[in-house]
Amino acid sequence: MDILLHEIRVFENYDVKLAEEGHIVIDTKVVDGSLNYYGNAHGGYLFTLCDQISGLVSRSLGVNAVTLQSNINYLRAGHLGDTLTVEGRCVHNGRTTKIVDTVITNEKGDVITKASFTMFVTGKPAGDA
After folding, report:
1. H, E, C per residue of 9-77
2. In this structure, is residue 1 part of a structural domain?
3. How many structural domains does the chain have?
4. Residue 61 lies in a domain
5. Environment class of 70 (CB within 10 Å of its CB; exposed 0-12, middle 13-18, buried 19+)
6. Dihedral, CA atoms, 66, 70, 73, 78, nearest 10 degrees?
């Protein structure tokens, strides 16, 4: 039996739609490198989109943070060529943790995933006092 891992690529293409304190929105297109063996957007690809946006939301609040805990629900398949909107919003802005809710929708407005990330604050970005 040959076992070959399928390479997954994320953020080959994206467009920042909104970047404000505690709220980030980007668009990206599902490409061949985003697909699983069944021809749908790979769960790891969708998770990584949410994780990256959660980190950017934390950065928008003036801190560096890493994922402490996460939960994701896959509600609908993403397909080759779909334009996905990934939106992250801080719902808890604590001193040591941030909680970021993320939603991915397709161009029809269908919800593809809903996720929640607890981000652990590791400090301020370099150069910030």
Report:
1. CCCCCCEEEEEECCEEEEEEECCHHHECCCCEECHHHHHHHHHHHHHHHHHHCCCEEEEEEEEEEECCC
2. no
3. 1
4. yes
5. middle
6. 20
One digit per residue, pLDDT tens: the chain, 129 residues? 777 776 777 778 899 999 999 999 999 999 999 999 899 999 999 999 999 999 999 999 999 999 999 999 999 999 999 999 999 999 999 999 999 999 999 999 999 999 999 999 999 988 765
End-to-end CA distance of the chain: 56
Burial, 5: exposed, middle or buried (Cβ in 10 Å; 0-12, 13-18, 19+)? exposed
